[in-house]
Write a structure and sequence with these properties.
By secondary structure, this protein is an alpha+beta fold. Helix content is 36%, strand content 25%. The chain has 10 helices and 12 strands. A hairpin with a 6-residue loop joins strand 2 and strand 3.
Length: 331
């Protein structure tokens, strides 16, 4: 299991979401997610049985969000939310890193433990109401690694385009494959300080307005994934992998996001990533606003690649934000 559970402490990964594969449905399936689990950032919290629901954190907004998630999770399990949660680390919300799914699954796991429900992780995932669009977040929590899911059957599961929040009665998509991500491939990221991704009603409206996508673009995305990205992982071909990630930005679902007017400031970030010789590939995670690329950690250190990226971003007068590096979570 990619998330870890020791001595009443839960740790989760975050995830990068590369793209949705099929937002057309010509072959009778829609959605289909591709992404990878990350070591950092992650959620870390301690928990114990308590007389009433109690969330401790220095961030009032985070406390309120986790309290809502705790109550919602307890209702799914039909138990009292009598848990104290002490937050140590969290995933920044609405930046394309999958915080909502990780909180839901981790709180379900904590309640399952405290109330001795003895439900399997697969059962907790099934009742979580997550995975109505992409299965990458639930896959990152359970297994880690590089993940590709098969989307949803239009006839049996889901006959409309909508984010997971608006597709809660839809079953999780099948996991088509999980590959170990090469341990010497580093991930370098930029998260804007004052620019977030889509969520809620805005995300739904964007999805409705931009679907279905032309079939030829879905075919182009599938071609890149099948004949470039996946072989690159198995052959440890980082340049080809980076090229495939960049190619996915130019067509299909991801291209629609790059065309959003509010993301125009991210073009300078993109140019900065592309200018650094040690970074290969550049992508937008989910609906934004985190930008990511990859580097060979055997050839260039984390400190050097971050310094080079910061220099390039200053050159392009990029908006302010956080630069960090991490590794894929494979465990």
């Amino acid at each position: 299991m990619s998330s870890t559970f020791t001595h009443n402490r839960i740790r989760t990964p975050s995830r990068l979401h590369f793209t949705l594969v099929d937002m057309n449905g010509h072959l009778g399936r829609i959605d289909g997610g591709l992404g990878v689990a990350l070591e950092q950032p992650g959620i870390v919290f301690d928990f114990r049985s308590h007389g009433h629901a109690n969330v401790r954190s220095g961030d009032a907004r985070l406390r309120k969000f986790v309290m809502r998630e705790l109550i919602a999770s307890s209702e799914l399990l039909d138990v009292d939310p009598a848990l104290q949660v002490v937050i140590r680390e969290t995933i920044p919300p609405h930046h394309g890193l999958g915080s909502g799914t990780q909180w839901r699954l981790s709180l379900l796991a904590a309640l399952n433990h405290c109330f001795e429900l003895n439900l399997s992780q697969s059962k907790l995932t099934e009742i979580s109401t997550r995975g109505g669009t992409s299965g990458i977040g639930i896959g990152a929590f359970q297994w880690g690694g590089l993940l590709l899911d098969g989307g949803h059957s239009v006839d049996r599961d889901k006959d409309f385009f909508a984010p997971s929040r608006f597709a809660r009665d839809v079953r999780q998509p099948p996991l088509l494959l999980r590959y170990e991500f090469p341990v010497h491939w580093g991930v370098v990221l930029f998260r804007p300080r004052d620019l977030g991704g889509l969520s809620g009603q805005r995300e739904l409206e964007f999805m409705v307005a931009n679907t279905p996508i032309p079939l030829n673009e879905v075919q182009a995305v599938s071609h890149v994934i099948l004949m470039q990205l996946l072989p690159a992982i198995l052959e440890f071909d980082l340049p080809a992998f980076g090229s495939s990630v960049s190619a996915l930005q130019e067509t299909g679902w991801k291209r629609r996001h790059w065309e959003r007017p509010e993301l125009a400031p991210l073009q300078a970030i993109r140019r900065g990533f592309n200018e650094v010789a040690g970074i290969v590939g550049c992508g937008l995670s989910s609906t934004g606003s985190t930008i990511f690329g990859f580097f060979d950690a055997d050839e260039i250190s984390d400190d050097v690649v971050k310094a080079q990226l910061l220099t390039a971003l200053r050159k392009h007068a990029a908006i302010s934000g956080q630069v960090w590096s991490t590794r894929a979570n494979n465990t």
